[in-house]
Amino acid sequence: MAFLEITNVDKIYGAKTAIETYGLKNISLSIDEGEFVVLSGPSGSGKTTLLNMIGGLDNVTQGTITLDSVELTSLSEAQLSKARLHDIGFVFQAYNLISVLTAFENIEYVMALQGIDKAARHARVLEVAQTLGIDALLDKRPDQMSGGQQQRVAVARAVASKPKLILADEPTANLDSKTAEDLMNMMARLNEEEKITIIFSSHDPMVIGKAKRSVKLKDGAIASNERHS
Prior knowledge:
By secondary structure, the chain is of the alpha/beta class. The chain has seven helices and ten strands. It has helices at residues 47-54, 77-87, 103-113, 118-132, 147-160, 177-194, 205-210, and strands at residues 4-13, 21-31, 36-40, 62-67, 70-71, 88-92, 165-169, 197-201, 213-218, 221-227.
């Protein structure tokens, strides 16, 4: 079985009512450990819905999703929360940093929830910050940073706890083209160096071109699935 196995997944809004709307239609997809995959397609194609299903932020109507041999779709809410905390890192287009915390505190936040001791978390924050070139931002709060800087901190937070999988929903949507390209190059380098599986969504051709594999969605279904040379 692949590292991430999505099998016959549907998401139906208003299921069993007179008006049913499909968010996802019979999605089956296998992703190997260490892949760098983009979910592409226009707005409304199902990219965010699929990412939310994979991350356990929303429930499938039918079908199964298995991550590293654990069937996420069969877990209780408590078990799913634990899986999200320890196994999955999230990067959102709205950054979702905690406004009252510094960059340093935001990056270590997930590790603190995991119960990792202070010395180990601090060492990991410094390691990740140096890798991502954000050492100078560690004492700053989100309102003291640009959008691109906030998104770098968000990526650092996602990767610092060494999750099995990182999910990034339109991570460059609010960035200018140069900052967006820098961010994608940084994520590609993290994928190579940290060996973390990364799945991100985008409709930006430049961003799509950075992936090693592109899964195109259209109207909630997979339209194409191509590996890049």
